[in-house]
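Late entry, written up from scratch paper. The run itself happened at the end of the previous shift, but nothing got recorded in the book at the time, so transcribing now.
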Amino acid sequence: MIATLDVADVGRRALIQAMRRRPAPGDVPGLRWLDVAPAAALASVRPPGLRRAVLLGMWDDEASAATFAGTHSLARRFAGNGFHAVLRPLRAFGSWPGLPADVPRSRVTQYDGPVIVTTLGRLRLSQAVRFLRASRPAERAALDADGFLWGTAAARPPFMATVSAWSSDEAAAAYAYADATAGHPRAIARQRQKDFHRESAFIRYAVVSSTGSLPGAPPIEFTPDVPT
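Output as recorded:
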């Protein structure tokens, strides 16, 4: 299983069409799950705009993802404008459609190179206020964390997500777990008290390949992942 990430400025009309016409598993060979959502700045109190979009997908294999990227009308909306990456899960916590149960859960994976992290959730709308009160401090903490390179939120309720790039596996793990009083560990504790989501997953990835650049990010040299 692999995942894909696209971040691009597609414009209001294209974004609305992409959200309405996103394919489901069974519509595209090898597709396990896919969603599209408007991007929003981390820790922002403003609603997402309708210009920049985030597309996340999970696939049986790289060939299926490549065929989609090269032939599907949705993928073409993102092509040549922004960032595209093929990702291999290094560790995961939680469950999500298309995510294998055997992905390791170790907090540190000893991967050598920058990593991408996603948080994925299907929000219980009754928990929206609690979720925002917990997530915004966690996102503010990420912006100031050692090793943080870039990040965005994405929201199309009930689907909620964040995507972030980190200089190393160790930096991502330290932000998530090292200081129990910091924003992210406190958000985890509040979720465990009463879950914000109907389903959620925290996933850290190696970058198999990438093209383009993350909007507003400094140049990032992702190390091509070659599994041993």
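The two ends are 16 Å apart (CA to CA).
(Scratch paper discarded after transcription.)
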